[in-house]
Amino acid sequence: MAQLQPVLVDGQWRPAKNTGAFSPLNPATRQPTGEVFPISSREEVEEVIEAAARASEALLGIDSEARARFLERFAGRIEARRTEIVGLAHTESALPVKPRLDEVELPRTTGQLRQAAAAARQGSWTLPTIDTKAGIRSFFAPLEGGVVVFGPNNFPLAFNSAAGGDFAAAIAAGNPVIAKANSSHPGTTRLLAEEALAALKEAGLPAATVQLIYRTDHQVGQRLVSHPLVGATGYTGSRHAGLVLKEAADRAGKPIYLELSSINPVLILPGALRERAAEIAAEFSTSCLLAAGQFCTNPGVVLLLKGAETEAFIGLIVEKFRAAAVGTLLGEGVEHNLGHSVAALQQAGAELLVGGAVGGGTGCSFQNTLLRVEGRRFLATPEQLQQEAFGNASLLVVADDEDQAEALCRALEGNLTGTLYTDRTGSDEALYRRLAPILRRKVGRLLDDKMPTGVAISPAMNHGGPYPATGHPGFTAVGIPASLRRFAMLQSFDNVRPAHLPPELHDQNPTGQLWRCIDGAWTEGNVPAKT
């Protein structure tokens, strides 16, 4: 048996205090990768939490420039080791080296780190607010204790618990991170944590600012997110596991930010089909089957109105699904869960049009799958027919008329995205204006004439939405600086002496570039002198 990989605790790579072990599989071969990782005990998790709490306190005495320097040096170290990191990520996920991992995901990862560094250095994310008449000042500041980050299986770099978006936001906000690796790519996470530790030393941050464990049992995981010394948790993963953690965190009054599931409805209105059905069919098929559909913004439900154009459109995409190559899934768990979800949709009344069985591709795989259900049947059991089928599968819902289309929109659960396709001559405009306001409040991001797959790294991006897409509709996992404020507390200072205030709240703007709200007006200036 291969040697058990070490954990990173308080600045040291050390043998784990484990209760068991696991070995990840290469999804393309279904064979073990050759590495073995520990399942951490409660004792070990307690040590990690306590070390993070000490680091949290030590970070209060370290300025934002040091955090920014760490994030930038970490980005540079990832790039210097990109061949090894990308290679292991490919082995553990079966995602292609090029373009996906090397040309898209790794640059996105380092770009996020650098954007977070810029936000930490500039400081306006803290929203300093000064009321000179009342003598009260406030801003967002780091939490007490470490931030636990659970990374997902589908982005081994950009959402990695030791380098991804939640990690970058937590560090930029001034918090240490306890990285809980995803069991699908623990080796990749270890490589990233190695570079994070080296960058910590270069930047002069506390040793426990970044720590890494790989897996815990369920009870220890619940203890981790609910511990009195933990500041908050960022989680991306399955709805079931996330809700178990949320229940534990909620009982303890601990913030937990969840990305759980999303079917990302796409509404294709009749005029759009008459105008460009073939074009939309190609866009949808490409979006749904890209990376075997393993995106949280994958279009999982398509709403159409009954008619000859709709039937012709369905025929087009059925043929495209039949003809397209079947991609490799991220693991046996994804393969099993996709099969279970497709079967559950059929049991709820959906008709299988194509696919529906394991296989068809290399290694872990599932046939490209398309299902159909009539609008009235969907409305009879909306909860069952909105089960997320994570992978290369989608459900078509055909409404009888515009009234039923509106009812279907009202029955939708919360989602990350929602899309409407309309024609360019305006014949769909009245229906758009009827449906869009309903859809708008069901989703975090609304799109026109564009498939939702992919998430831009933009300050204006919202990668969030109403439950069950996330655990709270007011926060985003992507989009700096807004994502930082998940891992911060609002601190108010009432009649506090100037010498006791943090620099962001002094009369003098500490950098001259920090945006602050002074007596109701946003400005980069100083607090006006009293006359």
Which key terms come to mind for this protein?
531 residues, alpha/beta, Aldehyde Dehydrogenase, Chain A, domain 1, Aldehyde Dehydrogenase, Chain A, domain 2, 2 domains, seven-stranded mixed beta sheet, five-stranded mixed beta sheet, 14 helices, 38% helix
How does this model look, in words?
With 531 residues, the protein is an alpha/beta fold. The chain folds into 2 domains: 34-260 and 476-484, Aldehyde Dehydrogenase, Chain A, domain 1 (3-Layer(aba) Sandwich), CATH 3.40.605.10; 266-448, Aldehyde Dehydrogenase, Chain A, domain 2 (3-Layer(aba) Sandwich), CATH 3.40.309.10. Helix content is 38%, strand content 20%. The strands form 6 sheets. It has a 7-stranded mixed beta sheet with strand order 16-17-18-15-14-19-20, with helices on both faces. Strands 21-8-7-22-23 form a 5-stranded mixed beta sheet, with no helix packed on it. Strands 11-10-9-12-13 form a 5-stranded parallel beta sheet, with helices on both faces.
